[in-house]
Every structure is written in structure tokens, then in C-alpha cells.
Amino acid sequence: MVPFLWTTENQVMPMLFAGIDVGSQSTACVLWDGKTICGFAVLPSGVNPRERAKEALKRALETAGLPERDCFIVATGYGRYQVEGAQLVVSEITCQAQGVAYFFPRARTVIDIGGQDSKVIRLGEGGRVLDFVMNDKCAAGTGRFLELMAQVLEIQLEDYGTLFARAREPLTLSQTCAVFAESELIGYIAQGKRKEDLVRAVAAAVAERVKALGERLGIVPPLVVTGGVAKNQAVLKLLEERTGCEILVPPEPLLTAGLGACLVAAKKA
């Protein structure tokens, strides 16, 4: 049964849950009415997560065609304690698990590759978290690594997939540290290596780092990848090759934690 919230003296409306995921690079807000996603927004996190969370909620209500109204706000992510008015705060591990289970009920492993960290989560039935590991000490294996290398290569993040498809020579970045990997990449450029092959080397470095993280738990299919890097076709293709698993990606991989936050709150309401 969907809980209700009185909005006027004579009108009752379904409770609206707002899951706000404040990440290091992006802030996502998902609106859930107890049955379906009715609105969402994704914005760059910037330097003021408190204000950006407010703006994400406002934008999500606009996409839903709803006026500003009271919502049951659930906060998660890197900056979850910065969300003003949050009535519930939940770890991003729990939220990712629940959000992924909504789209893929049989999922058993989640790889979340964000801007500043990457996580591998093992799931049981119903999105129950069995175990997880994180890499939050080094940029290698994260979206930030891809951004840094894109700057060196003078390309946009959106260019990775197209350039990767034309790669021929399997170059390797042997350094796991982002700083040293950048020097190694510059060395390849000095040798006149093709940009397409350098893009493949960068994507392969991320895939290798994430695979190594996953091997600490064991990667069990079905495997789902979330986070901004889930939109990078080069990384996904190489990660599939290295894990031997078909990779599933949610319709919008930046929304799973926000949706999961809503689902956790709905169970408690």
C-alpha cells in the first residue's frame, strides 16, 4: 500500500520520495511515487553540494511536471550529509544494491565506477548486500582517470567509444598510478603512436584496475555496471573481455543509487 501525505485540507496525494545521490562529480535526484519513477535530474556536483542538491530536486520536479511540494527526502552518496532537509540518510552501497535489483532482480555483482572511486558489490536475493570492496585512494580505475587522460589526448570523454573502435595496436599502460600513467602516455605520444591506440590503452588500464578490484570478491554473473563510466563503451567492451561476463547497464546508470534510496525509504514508510 502506498503511504499518503496530506497536502491540503481536502486533498490527499501519494507520498513522493526524492532520492538524492550527491557524488563527487554529479548529483542525481530521482522521484518515486511508490510505483514508478516520475521524474529525475542529473547535474554536475560543483563546489556547493548543498545548493546543487536543492537544484537537482527542483529540476526533477520540473521534469515530472509537478509543482514544488513536500517530498520525503532520502540522501546518499559522497555528500549525503550535505543534503538539507533529508529525513533519511543511507549508504551508497545499500542504495546501489537496491537500485540495481529493481532493474535486474537476478543481478549478483555490481561494479560502480564513479568520478573519484570504484566499488564492487556482491548481491544476494532482493538486492541484499553480501560484501563489497572499494577503491577510493587512487584515481586509477575511476572516471577521473579517464578525464585526466582525455585532457592529455586532447579529446572529449564522448570520443572514447568512436576512437576505440578504430584501434589496432594493443598498447599497455603498465603504471597503476594516474600520475605515472600520464607520463607513460606522453611517452607514447612522443613515439608517434596513434591516438586511437592510446585511447584503447587508457580504457584497458581502467578495465584492468576494476577487474583486479572485483577479483578480491569474485565476479559472479549477472554483472551490472553503474556510474558515469558505464556510458563509456570502450571500458565496457574491455571489461567484458577481461571478466568473461556479459555486462548489463541500467537505462540511466547515474540514477541507480538515487532510485535505491527511494526504495529503501518506501520500505520503511
TrEMBL record:
Question: Where's the ATPase BadF/BadG/BcrA/BcrD type domain?
Answer: 19-265
Q: Which UniProt keywords apply?
A: Iron, Iron-sulfur, Metal-binding
Does the record's keyword annotation contain Iron-sulfur? yes
Q: Which SUPFAM superfamilies match?
A: Actin-like ATPase domain
For activity, the cofactor(s) needed are:
[4Fe-4S] cluster
Q: Could you cite one Gene Ontology molecular function of this protein?
A: iron-sulfur cluster binding
Q: Which InterPro entries does the annotation name?
A: ATPase_BadF (IPR002731), ATPase_NBD (IPR043129), CoA_E_activase_dom (IPR008275), Dehydratase_Activator_Redct (IPR051805)
Q: What protein name is recorded for this chain?
A: 2-hydroxyglutaryl-CoA dehydratase
